[in-house]
Amino acid sequence: MTEEPRWLTDREQRAWQAYRRMFLLLNAQLSRDLGQDSGLSEPDYDVLSSLGASPRHRRRISDLADHMLWSRSRLSHHLARMEKRGLVMREECDTDGRGAIVALTEDGLLTLDKAAPLHVESVRRHFIDLLDPEQIDAFAGIGERVVNRLTPTGDDA
């Protein structure tokens, strides 16, 4: 005996469709603004900002891939393109001959420093400033709950 699917109610369908459209439209707009404002792609900015927030602006490549939820292969190919542009450089890992470190170059850090204020203004204009404080708290709580459920270390079962 097969169980009947738990179809979404009209209210649930409205919430799901609003999220899907918001996700697609907001990401597209933020990506457009990022490209126009700084010449960076969203993946470029993700790498730069992750490294910028790391101690000494460097990180093991495997840790960066895990942090960004990217495959090591995808990250390696992207880093190669960013290296050619002088934004990052690879270094050998002192503690592990098999591992590698990626670090921001001076140009990478300058690029991030120029891009970040423009990117945060875009995030504010198209998302944060549209919400009141209660909506921001609710959105953060919703996002954290879903992320906790979907990550291996999450405890929200």
From TrEMBL:
InterPro entries linked to this entry: HTH_MarR-typ (IPR000835), MarR/SlyA-like (IPR039422), WH-like_DNA-bd_sf (IPR036388), WH_DNA-bd_sf (IPR036390)
Residue ranges of every copy of the HTH marR-type domain listed in the record: 12-148
Classification via PANTHER family: MARR FAMILY REGULATORY PROTEIN, TRANSCRIPTIONAL REGULATOR, MARR FAMILY
Protein name: MarR family winged helix-turn-helix transcriptional regulator
